[in-house]
Structures are given as structure tokens and as C-alpha cells.
UniProtKB/TrEMBL annotation:
Residues 71-104 are annotated as: Disordered. This is Uncharacterized protein. Residues 90-104 have a biased composition (Low complexity). Residues 71-80 have a biased composition (Basic and acidic residues).
Length: 104
């Protein structure tokens, strides 16, 4: 199982927590929302990303962490202050995987 951190623009109402696979919702001081928690597989991740898109939210970054490893993968805005160097994953970017996403 992988743990994910998904950063979106704006503050998301806690009402959506159950609908977003139970990911924890935390508000960041920079005006973003951080969704965190485990997801069982990539299908669950794609489901959450699709729901984010359908809500019209702007995806800023996505981090995946294996529980037993400290290796980190990031997808998102390279200019975001919390972004480090990216490493290749099966999800090179959202457009390559036909996931709709909004761009500013």
C-alpha cells in the first residue's frame, strides 16, 4: 500500500473527505489543501484524481511514499516551494495517462 500526499489549490470543505477515499484534509497556510493517507492501489489513486478533476479543483502536486521506504516521487508544479527533484514513476504526468487536469 502506498501513502499519498495530494496538494490542491484552495481550501476544500471537510464534507468531501469520505467521498475522497477517506484521505485526511489539512489546510496549509499558503491557501492550499493537502489530502493525505493510504490508498490500496493505482485504481484508487486514479479514482481520487478523477474526483478532484470533476470538482474543478486545481492539482498542484502529488507525492507517493512506500511505507517501508523513504524514496519519494512527485508529480506536479516544479515551481511549487515544496517540490524536490522528480524521479520516474509509472505516472510520468497526468496528461500521458489521459487524466483530465486543470492548468492555470
Amino acid at each position: 500500500m502506498m501513502n499519498y500526499q495530494i496538494r490542491i489549490k484552495g481550501h476544500l470543505d471537510p464534507f468531501w473527505q469520505d467521498w475522497l477515499a477517506g484521505l485526511q484534509i489539512a489546510y496549509e497556510p499558503d491557501g492550499t489543501t493537502l489530502l493525505t493517507g493510504p490508498l490500496p492501489d493505482q485504481a484508487a489513486l486514479f479514482g481520487v484524481l478523477l474526483k478532484i478533476s470533476r470538482l474543478g479543483l486545481i492539482l498542484l502536486s502529488l507525492e507517493a511514499h512506500k511505507a517501508a521506504e523513504t524514496q519519494e516521487y512527485r508529480i506536479g508544479d516544479a515551481n511549487h516551494p515544496d517540490t524536490t527533484s522528480s524521479k520516474p514513476t509509472e505516472l510520468n504526468n497526468l496528461e500521458e495517462n489521459n487524466l483530465p487536469c486543470k492548468h492555470e
